[in-house]
Amino acid sequence: MAVLKNEVKRFIVQALACFDPISEVAESVQKEFGLKITKQQIESHDPTKVSGKNLAQKWVDLFNTTRERFQNEISDIPIANKAYRLRALDRMATKAESMRNFNLTAQLIEQAAKECGDSYTNKQKHEHSGAGGGPIETLTLSKDEYKQARQEMLEDDDC
């Protein structure tokens, strides 16, 4: 097993903290540093794995800090921003329409409408609730009461 420089270790630890698959990390290390390393060597830099139990404390701290930041700061990821997604959908719809691909254009417009309507969020609108967010109270009528109310409504319409 080759001894890795600190910058390569940092790269691996941060990638693993961001939930990158080991195979993807191996490819990235190959591209970025020109090093071919084994998946086992990469896994040894993950303190959540058995093979990473002896990882130096500074790398464990970096892993935990990176993981916490990754999970809490989605604002750094452009596609997590609604305005970014809408702009991208607008560009795609414009391109699709210029190519006369109206089916795709319609799908992109529908996607944008869903995006604006918060279809893909955890937000739920409580438009159909009663007082204080509780259930809507319903009135139960007997058959005779229903007939009488219906007759009254029909008589009012005759005016």
Summarize the structure.
The protein has 159 residues and is an all-alpha fold. Among the domains are: 67 residues, no CATH class; 38 residues. It contains seven helices and no strands.
Describe it:
The longest helix is centred in the middle third of the chain and has 17 residues, at 82-98. 58% of the residues lie in helices and 0% in strands. It contains seven helices and no strands. The protein is elongated. The chain is mostly helical and 159 residues long. The mean pLDDT is 85.
Low-confidence stretches: none
Approximate shape:
elongated
Biggest β-sheet, characterized?
Answer: none
Query: Which percent band covers the strand fraction?
Result: under 5%
Number of strands: 0
Radius of gyration: 29 Å
Spatial gap, N to C terminus: 94 Å
Can you count the helices? Answer: 7
Percent of residues in helices comes to: 55-70%
Mean pLDDT across every amino acid position: 85
The run of helices and strands is: HHHHHHH
What structural category do the secondary elements indicate? Answer: mainly alpha
Give the helix/strand layout:
Blueprint: H1 6-17, H2 22-33, H3 39-43, H4 57-72, H5 82-98, H6 102-116, H7 143-157
Helix pairs in contact: 1-2, 1-4, 5-6
Protein name: DUF2280 domain-containing protein
Pfam families: DUF2280
Region (Disordered): 119-143
